[in-house]
Amino acid sequence: MLDALKYLLGSFGASGYGSKSTAEEVTENCPDLGSVTAVITGATSGIGAETARVLAKRGARLVLPARSLKAAEEAKARIVAEFPNSEIVVMALDLSSLDSVRCFVSEFESLDLPLNLLINNAGKFTHEHAISEDGIEMTFATNYLGHFLLTKLLLNKMIETAKKTGVQGRIVNVSSTIHSWFSGDVIRYLGLITRNKSQYDATRAYAVSKLANVLHTKELAQRLKQMDANVTVNCVHPGIVRTRLTRETEGIVTDLIFFLTSKFLKTIPQAAATTCYVATHPRLVNVSGKYFADCNEAWTSKLGSNSQEASRLWSASEIMTARDSRAIFDPLDASD
Ligand SMILES: NC(=O)c1ccc[n+]([C@@H]2O[C@H](COP(=O)([O-])OP(=O)(O)OC[C@H]3O[C@@H](n4cnc5c(N)ncnc54)[C@H](OP(=O)(O)O)[C@@H]3O)[C@@H](O)[C@H]2O)c1
């Protein structure tokens, strides 16, 4: 109750920011990002587009991978129109395809750019059950598995950049408070919805993918620490905001739901604030493995803080993203 009131009032937390802070406000006093190169997924619309706009405003060089180059060029044009000196590279990437992730990384490496910041923001929510070309349920493949491989393949570049520049690298995973709606066995549920269309529930599938973002953050933070890498990883809940995420359910009922809940909704500049805060704020140097909401550290679900589950998901993800592991969950085998 008190939390809801604080949220509605936009009260500031320990960071000095709250639910109503915007991405521009939280980056106002951040150091000049002129020497920072950032990869931001899902920057063609919504929260990612605003994150990209504000980081460009603060001087960062942006690499915007997108499945539609046309949409990415349009996103770039909007930013350049506002900040003509921005340096923005647009590249192809479909996160639901592991081959596409590998191609993107090899193209990115050929540019020989440094990499300081990786923002894993892209995401989808869909009522339609689908299987990725790698044989994995599509929401999980897009929201989590593609980002898992992307991060793994870009990690050496980030570690190397941090070593050369002495500036700590940061990875930000965009999750959701909905991660807490899933309880149970992540891998077992993934197998079930991959093999069996009738078991698919769009909200639960979305929740498990967002829980995977939280568990990924936890395990990666641990591994970065063990490697003594000067790179941190944290995850965020941006808040609830009307974007193209609900594009499939556009209509009068959705309009009504958004109208009735409008007091709890953020604007897009507010929703991009937590990502931008975690990506840039000097206070967060050496802070890793944490979950943030409304620009303040927050609690994950019990399952989200389970180290065993995080390590188990990591091992399964290594298998699922290995080149020769097609159809780890055989869609023809509907047995559980
Ligand atoms: N909106 C909310 O209330 C809310 C709440 C909590 C968390 N989130 C999270 O915030 C993040 C951003 O979502 P949003 O609300 O800004 O939604 P959005 O406007 O729909 O943006 C999603 C972005 O992800 C990209 N994307 C989707 N599938 C992709 C794929 N296979 N490969 C590459 N890019 C892909 C989209 O590109 P296209 O242009 O190609 O579609 C778009 O740029 C997501 O991770 C979402 O789960 C949102």
TrEMBL record:
Pfam families: adh_short. It comes from the Eukaryota. Keywords: Oxidoreductase. The keyword Oxidoreductase applies. Belongs to the short-chain dehydrogenases/reductases (SDR) family. This is Short-chain dehydrogenase TIC 32, chloroplastic.
